[in-house]
Write a structure and sequence with these properties.
Layout (H helix, E strand, L loop, with lengths): L4 E4 L29 H13 L3 E4 L11 E2 L5 E2 L35
Parallel strand pairs: 1-2
Antiparallel strand pairs: 3-4
């Protein structure tokens, strides 16, 4: 009896805030979150492994945080700029890399 596994939210740097969803707004892929840094994360993994508990780690790789500010570890973000990415790395409107492209016709595979 007991637990065979645990799931943890993304351990990467995210926007500041106490709401659950802030952990799903990544700023960098550094292992720093409200739960601690890389040392704490590795310690948790080792302790779980030592008692036979698997760990499922949730991850967010398909978007970055919106808005602007400072990540939980102090990394700046905003204006579609992040420590690892710049505006041109994201999907954007044809005439400007500063705004998201918009789907206007879901029947057109080139527009979606």
């Amino acid at each position: 009896k007991g637990f065979a596994a645990v799931q943890v939210s993304p351990p990467t740097e995210h926007i500041q805030g106490t709401e659950w969803w802030t952990r799903y707004q990544p700023v960098t892929y550094n292992l720093t979150s409200r739960s601690g840094g890389e040392r704490e994360f590795v310690s948790m993994l080792r302790r779980c492994r030592a008692v036979g508990v698997d760990v499922y780690v949730d991850a967010v790789f398909n978007h970055c945080a919106g808005g602007s500010g400072w990540g939980i570890a102090g990394s700046p973000f905003g204006g579609r700029s992040f420590p690892l990415y710049e505006p041109g790395d994201f999907h954007h409107n044809e005439n400007t890399s500063l705004s998201n492209c918009i789907v206007t016709n879901y029947s057109d595979k080139h527009n979606v």
